[in-house]
Design goal:
Elements (H helix, E strand, L loop, with lengths): L1 H10 L5 E5 L3 E6 L3 E7 L2 E4 L5 E4 L1 H4 L9 E4 L2 E2 L2 E2 L2 H18 L10 E6 L5 H13 L4 E6 H8 L10 E6 L4 E7 L2 E8 L3 H16 L1 E2 L2 H11 L10 E8 L5 E7 H25 L2 H10 L1 E4 L8 H9 L3 E3 L6 H10 L2 H7 L2 E3 L1
Parallel strand pairs: 1-9, 9-10, 11-17, 17-18
Antiparallel strand pairs: 1-2, 2-3, 4-5, 4-6, 7-8, 10-19, 11-12, 12-13, 14-15, 15-16
Helix pairs in contact: 3-4, 5-11, 6-7, 6-8, 8-10
Protein name: Cell shape-determining protein MreB
Pfam family, one: MreB_Mbl
Organism: Candidatus Woesebacteria bacterium GWA1_42_12
Length: 351
Amino acid sequence: MALPFINKIFGFFSHDVGIDLGTANTLVWVAGRGIVIREPSVVARHKRTKEILAIGTSAKKMLGRAPATIETIRPLRHGVIADFDATAAMLAHYIKKVHESGGVIPKIPRPRIVIGIPSGVTEVERRAVADAALSAGAREAHLIEEPMAAAIGAGLPVEEPEGLFVVDIGGGTSEIAVISLGGIVLGRSVRIAGDEMDEAIINYVRLKYSLLLGQPTAEEVKISIGSAKAEEKERFAVVRGRDLETGLPKSVKLSSSEIREALAPTLQEIISAVSDCLGETPPELVSDIMEKGIVMAGGGSLLPGIDKVVGEETKMPVAIAEDPLTCVVRGCAKVLEDARLLGKIRVSRGF
């Protein structure tokens, strides 16, 4: 009984924090204040001294533009930590930012944190996330699986004895899960998501136009004119890059149909994983899913027409969650406020 009381006392001085530690973006929710940080998961540091120079949006602006002395890195790849020091520095920066803006002395006492992680990570990878959070100043670090967090954030009744099917397409992984009675009955974590869509656009433009694009440009094109299904009105975007034949700058006008063609193979892999997961689902849960449908979350679900394509391929009703980008962090927030649910669904706990 003492621990909840201590947590309540500490809560007066520190802010409990929910974090969606994504490959592309990091979102931070703070008790009593909502989502306070939405920043790219990018860190810029000096190559020789390892001094952190920028984090988040300011670091992302340096991608592809930094001199040789500065390395601009994304510390998470496919939803797991690729650079421990950079991840810890990024988390510490956001925790400090949260407490400073709240008028509280940083780390006195340290906050409780709930972090969403991909369902397919290993125990070693889980430990790395928990250790990064603890070294960044967390008092406790609880890890929950992203599809479960997304389902809770979308307002789905995860503890009921009925099947729920969630597809969370993020930057580094696509999380597919069948949920019932507060647990994941069947889950798949496919390392094909938003980053692979960007790569597909880069490869398509390189092969068709001999034009080399940077990742930020490819991402902008995907967001502005990308789609999963043919649209009534064609959209266009002008991109600039380096001509691979001459080495000189070059501009090309791309159409939404070209981007759709570029994205098709990547989308098909994600849809195949969804179909495979449905094929392995127990019959009783399949009947529930046929009635309630598939719920999509994550940034990838914002691609126009993706819900229709998934629905056509699976023969299931498909709905996109409200504000899909924030489902995971809102799920982390809800379990922070419900100790019983947190104890039931967490996959790891660090002190």
